[in-house]
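name: query_chain
kind: protein
chains: 1
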Amino acid sequence: MLRQLEYLVALARERHFGRAADACFVSQPSLSAGIRKLEGELGVALTLRGPRYRGLTPEGEHVLVWAQRMLAERAALQQELASMEGELTGTLRLGAIPTALSVVSLVTNPFCARHPAAKVSLESLSSRDITRRLTGLEIDAALTYLDDHTLRDVRRIPLYEEQYVLLTPADGPLAGHTEASWAQAAALPLCLLGPRMRNRRILDEYFAAEGAPAQPAIESDTVAGLYAHLTGGPWSSVVSHAWLHMFGVPEGKHVVRLTGPAHGSRVGLVVAEQHPQLPMVRALLAVAREAGVRESLDALLRRHLPS
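structure:
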């Protein structure tokens, strides 16, 4: 039955029979047959009938909760048995908001070094998806904003607080400047993340506080897309200091300290409150506490912004 429960969880997640079958490494007819077999064993219809996936029945939604719980318990048992042998095995399922992806390696690298038999599966997820996937026990932990009001029944472990700096052309209007106001930044040709991104909404609050709303000429839904325009272009951008860890300072740009509010939300690990806690999660938290993410990022910022 556990295999059929995996099919149901994948179908609810992918909302498409073909994609769910691909995720389970089976053919679509095999997945459909597995779902029908599960319905026969339980004596209830789990999916709404139709040529395409239309959702789960109320009974299917109820079974889904139990399926997620049972599969999580199986994974926990496997990890516990492996840890009794003295070695952590299995896969750590980790999610991260796009703006925190640049620092994930500060945690995953020491985790893998300490537990070489364990693997890490990393996904870029929105805050909403992180909440849903944690609730459904589909991921073990996530890097996200800790003040996200949608998070429920989770344990929060702070890693760092976003600090914002201006990347601007070295030969532009702020050439030679080491500091600038948010109003000065707003007057530059800007490239920023799009308004649906949490980071952008934070920045908009700071620009508005100085009476200088930002009107970027270019908006991107990824940090990589933003940096692609900063390289060799006339654009400036307000970025989190955490992004410097991965992307650095593009050629032709220099870092300017922003006066006034320059600190944003706390970013950290969140894990579902489970008892007992998964050995994989316990191991991750132990590494995260010792990783020194805040100290590493603060040291990086000092190199770019000497006092």
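note: The first helix runs from residue 2 to 14.
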